[in-house]
Amino acid sequence: MIRNLFRQLFAGILIGTVIIAGIYFFTQPYAYQGSLIDPPLPAKDFSLVQADGTTFQLSDQEGELVLLYFGYTYCPDVCPTTLSDLAQAKKRLGDNDAANIQVVMITVDPERDTADHLQDYVMNFDPLFIGLSGDLEDLEAIWSNYGVYREKQINSGATGYLVDHTSRVYVLDTNGGLRLTFPFGMEAEAMADDLAQLLSGK
């Protein structure tokens, strides 16, 4: 009888521990894997003409997550890797969540990246990605507003020069606030988890 009481007591303790652990797990705040900006910063609005002649206005995208990336089509490694990772992150989210995400690449090399050329480039990674170019004056204002670093590096290769540039992805939440940044090399799964959390509104 005493043995049965010990068994019941042990089972009760075990069940209680599992319940407490479950409550603790499910009530813990989500830990973002990108760099969280809390409270979010207001994202500077801008407009640029797209390859199809229509105007992309950032403020028109509220209600969606906008992932801003600054790069260029002649980039040998960082840009294609980042765009590939973003495309994979969207696929991991599934169609419903992915439909609420817009990836936008803005060139840091307007001398070579026309709107048409840039749009063709980003569509190699995802047909819904948007590529934006423009006049140097307009782009410099955007680069400045988002703290984007870019500097030409002359070389003797076939491309003539490379461009050193900021490699982070800027994540704007559904209210148009700068909420997260993703560093270069962040895994697609981690990005997808962060984006799903933002979309959940929790």
Structure description:
It is a single chain. By secondary structure, the protein is α+β, with helices and mostly antiparallel strands. The chain folds into two domains: 1-30; 35-200, Glutaredoxin (3-Layer(aba) Sandwich). The chain contains six helices and ten strands. It has helices spanning 2-27, 78-93, 95-98, 115-123, 136-145, 188-200, and strands at 35-42, 47-49, 55-57, 65-71, 101-107, 130-132, 150-154, 161-165, 169-172, 177-182. The strands form three sheets. A six-stranded mixed β-sheet has the order 1-10-9-4-5-6. It has a two-stranded antiparallel sheet with strand order 2-3. Strands 7-8 form a two-stranded antiparallel ribbon. It is globular, with a radius of gyration of 23 Å.
Quick overview of this protein structure:
The chain has 202 residues and is α+β, with helices and mostly antiparallel strands. Helices cover 39% and strands 25% of the residues. It folds into 2 domains: 1-30; 35-200, Glutaredoxin (3-Layer(aba) Sandwich).
Strand and helix map with partners:
Layout: H1 2-27, E1 35-42, E2 47-49, E3 55-57, E4 65-71, H2 78-93, H3 95-98, E5 101-107, H4 115-123, E6 130-132, H5 136-145, E7 150-154, E8 161-165, E9 169-172, E10 177-182, H6 188-200
Helix pairs in contact: 2-6
Instruction: For the record, give the distance between the C-alpha atoms at the N and C termini, rounded to a whole number.
Output: 50 Å
Order of helices and strands: HEEEEHHEHEHEEEEH
Count of all domains: 2
Low-confidence stretches: 9-14, 16-26
Report strand %: 25-35%
Global mean pLDDT? 88
Number of helices: 6
Determine the fraction of residues in helical runs and give it as a percent range.
Answer: 25-40%
Main sheet summary? 6 strands, mixed
Number of strands: 10
Q: Which structural class do you get from the secondary structure elements? A: alpha+beta
Look at the structure and name the CATH superfamily of the largest domain: Glutaredoxin
The spatial strand order of the largest sheet comes to 1-10-9-4-5-6
- CATH class of the largest domain, please? Alpha Beta
Rg (CA only): 23 Å
| CATH fold assignment of the largest domain | Glutaredoxin
CATH architecture of the largest domain: 3-Layer(aba) Sandwich
Global shape: globular
